[in-house]
């Protein structure tokens, strides 16, 4: 059915149009029955449905329907698997159709600037390319079922502290390369139906009122065509927001802001066409859903199995000193820790799912082995219980292997507040310390939404990072521990040794009014690797029960223009005795020296499945954006002419193959010459260099550089030193060192400018 949305809007009263721009209640949009506009419902996500039929709230205090909790984004990003994320999206789309939900609120792609952000468990990565790829696949899957997504929180919402009022102070290059880039590819390639604006200010302007963000960048540059909704309660000034491009306010405002819109139109403060456009955008998405309703499929048992598969693909084996996989028979195993019995598998707040069932490791292991169990600690308070410790130590001592299930309790990380430190509860650290005293064969299995410090890492023989892996977490853990599945996840973020190593440490979370992003583009591994700072585990790292060999790196060209695409191919071979999946990571290193950049940046990746002894060719592509940085002089992406190194590795710190390509830029950067343009800048321009040669000789002679004798002056000022001094000198210094007047310098500037402009 083809709807004439513009005709429908023309029939609406001013009050009806204003009313469409805010929710009916917490989760529903308003209907207009006389015009056939139906009421639709949205639901929190993004890793499961949090549909609330009765008592509605934002932070998850009230019950929602029984649903399937899939692994959270902090885990799924570690899969580095686009197809898997698309499958997850398709399943969520089916569930939404079954529950008559028009939009699921997600995915969340905010960058993990600091390990302390309380909502990191909902976010994919510290890397914008990985985050955008995971988000794009997720969106594609959901929307293939004619259900909308709402990519969030747009933008620079990287902390919970004072999130509704604090201003993220961020320079344009950093904003574009790190924080907007995570959204950009997903918006352009997967075209989400909606975008959710964030609570915070950006450089002093609320995101909900930022015309440049919501209209100029999102719509005009990126081509977004859906509607922009507010995060729940993010509206500051409704009329300014509407003018900026904020179409829908959520939740309901009790009619107050609707009245403000009506008054603004009647007084002439707001053009009615602006309101009409917002309503059209909202109606287009409403009708897209209602006119394409599908039966939907909500088979929770089957979806539980998928949750387990995704969890197996996402968990990361951080350490294995020959202790894993465990043996199903003939080995006495002790499971220790409350999380073995009752795992922590999701975060707190608006994404909290009312899971229809949860399988912990203690239950799942019954299929494979008899294990002893000791609780070890209590999650209600961080206080060591001596009786529990003694029981756990005894169980460990009487076993061949102790597996400790540890991590962060719910109270340590949630929407609404940030973590205060990067440590695990002291009672759990104490437990691990006591166990390794009596049992050298100890494995730690972690449940956490973001990195933790690991003072015990060198004392245990194995570490499995589970993150928050959904309701089938225990099944996946046991499958991996016993080798029924081969670990294949890789870290989507760096795990530093301690919090103070993090690049945002001195500027997070700010003073409550502003937070300065002074680390610039050096976020996560971009900082750690460039700084050459030791880390506990690097970005992209993860072990397997098999081994892989990389070889035969080939580039489709050794020279290219920035408008060309470069094909990179290599071979990967499984050199072990177990089938496995390897994540091949492709990094680019800018060697031009034109601008300060990280030593390497992830620009593509591929996940390849290999049987023992099998070898496959992996092919990936790079385009201009793979080499470019955001140049504020031209307000566009720019790849300078020069050498770029192509690096292929199994983590950011483990590079196996490398080659180089010469790139030629087709973009000319305008050269503007003025009194403070330096000699070095002019010498870099061939047309200007020729004009400058005579003046430079005069200046060199005036400062004694032309003296070839053995005087004290010639020893103090060498020709090399003089040249460096000249290169760093601006044109205005010619008055002092070349006897040139200001007027003559201005004439020189005009001559130089004409030369470089080709006049």
TrEMBL record:
All residue ranges annotated as the Fibronectin type III-like domain in the record: 582-652
The keyword Transcription appears for this protein: no
GO terms classed as biological process: carbohydrate metabolic process
Signal peptide extent: none
Molecular function terms, GO-annotated: beta-glucosidase activity
SUPFAM superfamilies membership: (Trans)glycosidases, Beta-D-glucan exohydrolase, C-terminal domain
Alphabetically ordered keywords of this record: Hydrolase
Stored SMART domains: Fn3_like
TM stretches of this protein: none
Similarity section: Belongs to the glycosyl hydrolase 3 family.
Name of the protein in its database record: Glycosyl hydrolase
Organism: Blautia pseudococcoides
Taxonomic lineage: Bacteria, Bacillati, Bacillota, Clostridia, Lachnospirales
């Amino acid at each position: 059915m083809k709807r004439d949305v513009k005709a429908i809007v023309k029939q609406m009263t001013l009050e009806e149009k204003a009313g469409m721009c805010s929710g009916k209640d917490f989760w529903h949009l308003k209907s207009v029955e006389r015009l056939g506009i139906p009421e639709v419902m949205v639901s929190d996500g993004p890793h499961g449905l949090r549909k609330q039929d009765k008592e509605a709230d934002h932070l998850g205090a009230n019950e929602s329907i029984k649903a399937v909790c899939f692994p959270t984004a902090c885990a799924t990003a570690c899969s580095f698997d686009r197809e898997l994320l698309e499958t997850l999206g398709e399943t969520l789309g089916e569930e939404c159709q079954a529950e008559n939900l028009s939009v699921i609120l997600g995915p969340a792609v905010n960058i993990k600037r600091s390990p302390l952000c309380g909502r990191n468990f909902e976010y994919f990565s510290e890397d914008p390319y990985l985050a955008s790829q995971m988000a794009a696949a997720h969106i594609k899957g959901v929307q293939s079922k004619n259900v909308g997504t709402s990519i969030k929180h747009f933008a620079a919402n990287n902390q919970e502290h004072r999130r509704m009022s604090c201003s993220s102070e961020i320079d344009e290059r950093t904003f574009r390369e790190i924080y907007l880039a995570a959204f950009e590819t997903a918006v352009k390639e997967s075209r989400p139906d909606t975008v959710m604006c964030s609570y915070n200010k950006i450089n002093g302007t609320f995101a909900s009122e930022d015309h440049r963000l919501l209209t100029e960048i999102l719509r005009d540059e990126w081509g977004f065509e859906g509607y922009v909704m507010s995060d729940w309660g993010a509206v500051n000034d409704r009329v300014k927001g509407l003018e900026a491009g904020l179409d829908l306010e959520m939740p309901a405002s009790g009619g107050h802001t609707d009245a403000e819109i009506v008054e603004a139109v009647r007084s002439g403060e707001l053009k009615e066409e602006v309101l009409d456009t917002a309503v059209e955008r909202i109606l287009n998405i409403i009708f897209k859903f209602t006119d394409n309703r599908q039966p939907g499929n909500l088979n929770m048992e089957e979806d539980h199995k998928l949750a387990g598969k995704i969890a197996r693909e996402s968990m990361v084996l951080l350490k294995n000193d020959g202790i894993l996989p465990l043996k199903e028979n003939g080995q006495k195993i002790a499971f220790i820790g409350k999380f073995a019995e009752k795992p922590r598998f999701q975060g707190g707040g608006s994404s909290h799912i009312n899971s229809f069932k949860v399988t912990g490791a203690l239950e799942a292991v019954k299929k494979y082995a008899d294990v002893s169990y000791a609780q070890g600690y209590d999650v209600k308070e961080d206080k060591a219980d001596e009786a529990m410790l003694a029981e756990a130590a005894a169980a460990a001592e009487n076993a061949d292997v102790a597996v400790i299930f540890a991590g962060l309790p719910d109270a340590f990380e949630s929407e609404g507040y940030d973590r205060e430190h990067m440590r695990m509860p002291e009672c759990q650290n104490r437990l691990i310390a006591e166990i390794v005293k009596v049992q050298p064969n100890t494995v730690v299995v972690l449940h956490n939404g973001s990195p933790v410090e690991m003072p015990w890492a060198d004392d245990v023989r194995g570490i499995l990072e589970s993150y928050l892996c959904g309701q089938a977490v225990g099944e996946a853990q046991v499958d991996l521990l016993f080798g029924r599945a081969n670990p294949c996840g890789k870290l989507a973020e760096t795990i530093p040794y301690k919090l103070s190593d993090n690049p945002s440490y001195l500027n997070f979370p700010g003073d409550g009014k502003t937070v300065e992003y002074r680390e610039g583009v050096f976020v996560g591994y971009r900082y750690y690797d460039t700084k050459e700072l030791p880390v506990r585990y690097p970005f992209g790292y993860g072990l397997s029960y098999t081994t892989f060999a990389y070889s035969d790196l080939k580039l489709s060209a050794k020279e290219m223009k920035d408008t060309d695409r470069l094909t990179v191919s290599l071979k990967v071979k499984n050199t072990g005795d177990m089938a496995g999946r390897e994540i091949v990571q492709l990094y680019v290193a800018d060697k031009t020296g034109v601008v300060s950049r990280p030593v390497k940046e992830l620009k593509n990746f591929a996940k390849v499945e290999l049987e023992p002894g099998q070898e496959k060719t992996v092919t990936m592509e790079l385009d201009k954006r793979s080499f470019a940085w955001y140049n504020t002089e031209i307000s566009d992406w720019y790849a300078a002419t020069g050498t770029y190194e192509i690096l292929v590795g199994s983590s950011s710190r483990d590079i196996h193959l490398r080659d180089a390509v010469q790139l030629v830029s087709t973009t000319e950067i305008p050269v503007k010459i003025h009194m403070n343009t330096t000699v070095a800048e002019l010498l870099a321009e061939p047309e200007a260099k020729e004009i400058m040669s005579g003046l430079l000789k005069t200046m060199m002679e005036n400062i004694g550089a032309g003296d070839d004798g053995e005087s004290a002056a010639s020893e103090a000022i060498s020709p090399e030193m003089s040249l460096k001094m000249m290169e760093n000198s601006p044109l205005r210094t010619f008055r002092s060192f070349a006897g040139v007047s200001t007027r003559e310098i201005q004439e020189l500037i005009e001559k130089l400018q004409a030369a470089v402009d080709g006049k």
